[in-house]
């Protein structure tokens, strides 16, 4: 038994499923989850000391690479001054100012402790601001695990949503409408029928929780247009895309501006941080200025802020993104070539440093149904093959991959060599 197997057995005694977030348990791909001990740059090291080239990047945050010396130094400097005060600190304003400078349309921002809290709070704010209850979301998008967002589509596009987890009241689910991602006609239809009841639309501007699915041209623009027409709040969930697809987020990349933006992952540099922000008139609806309540004992934690601020300084340096985007492209093109050479139907998507591979005959993947139709068994074999080769991919086929600034051309080559051997065995 290796150390991960041993640790997993122990963990299962006192932690449900042995993990603190379900996907970590490897249920989708089978086998024992790898327990990690440390990470440096592009690599993670497991409890037995085995090295992996890491394309999970803690599910997105580590774009400057793991344990970046400047981030670590900023954190150490801050934590020596005290871990938490539950009172305002200067660094919160510094990070807030940085976010407002970088993101188009962000006038004010409030910090929370996770992406889930960010989207949950943004939804409440949209409802409070508009005085309406209905929320539109899209199938295959994930916005964290708050009640209003753990909802799947009912039988028809415009039927009331149904809870996707026991514990979510049906009475709440009926206020969430789930439409198809990239379905412009579906959005227009929904708004034409119930637009005046819609508090807000929440969307992943590049879907990264159904593998990696970019918006088709016109999709985000249509959301902006319909929200404007009906006075609904457009919430662009940039928890994953923020500072992944450009230094101005997906909104800068696609030229579509939200009313409210939610953030997490990269902006916290690997610490538990999230944020929601946007138009001043909406943000002033939040307590203590306005009537919509939202709070947090550890929100704006100075140590977490230090990791986030340093990370955002590093990504703001001219030319930071080009090499990462080039390597992402080299990786997906290389994977496609090697799959083709092995006679395996396979395609890819990528935007900036987000990418995904699909075991499918389809040439292009643009929606949830196509993702569901991919060959999951083949992905699982590929995942385990790559894992034993020392390449760590997300342990489920519905997750985007991530490139960091620490990945080198040699890492890409090593990954492609491994993929060639694994494809040959599939
Ligand atoms: N929104 C998006 C787009 C996400 O990808 C995630 C997490 N993967 C969340 C929200 C929830 O964030 P957290 O896990 O930090 O609660």
Q: Report how far the terminal alpha carbons are from each other.
A: 26 Å
What proportion of the residues form beta strands (DSSP E)? 15-25%
Low-confidence stretches: none
Text of the CATH class of the largest domain: Alpha Beta
* Shape summary: globular
Supply Rg.
21 Å
Supply the number of helical segments.
Answer: 14
Modified residues (N6-(pyridoxal phosphate)lysine): 265
Cofactor: pyridoxal 5'-phosphate
Organism: Pseudoteredinibacter isoporae
Main location: cytoplasm
Task: Please give a quick description of this structure.
By secondary structure, the protein is α/β, with parallel strands linked by helices.
Task: Describe the 3D structure.
This protein is of the alpha/beta class. It is globular and about 55 Å long. It has 2 domains: 3-67 and 319-425, Aspartate Aminotransferase, domain 1; 69-315, Type I PLP-dependent aspartate aminotransferase-like (Major domain) (Aspartate Aminotransferase, domain 2), CATH 3.40.640.10. The chain has helices at residues 3-14, 69-79, 90-102, 115-130, 170-173, 184-194, 219-230, 249-254, 280-283, 302-315, 321-341, 368-372, 376-388, 409-425; strands spanning 36-40, 43-46, 51-54, 108-112, 134-139, 151-152, 162-163, 176-180, 198-203, 233-237, 260-263, 274-278, 347-351, 354-358, 391-392, 401-402. The strands form 4 sheets. It has a 7-stranded mixed sheet with strand order 4-12-11-10-9-5-8, sandwiched between helices. The chain has a 4-stranded mixed sheet with strand order 1-2-3-15. The chain has a 3-stranded antiparallel sheet with strand order 13-14-16, covered by helices on one side. It has 14 helices and 16 strands. Helix 2 (69-79) runs antiparallel to helix 10 and helix 3 runs parallel beside helix 10. Bound molecules: 4'-deoxy-4'-aminopyridoxal-5'-phosphate. 4'-deoxy-4'-aminopyridoxal-5'-phosphate is lined by residues 59, 114-116, 119, 142-144, 204, 208-209, 237, 239-240, 264, 274.
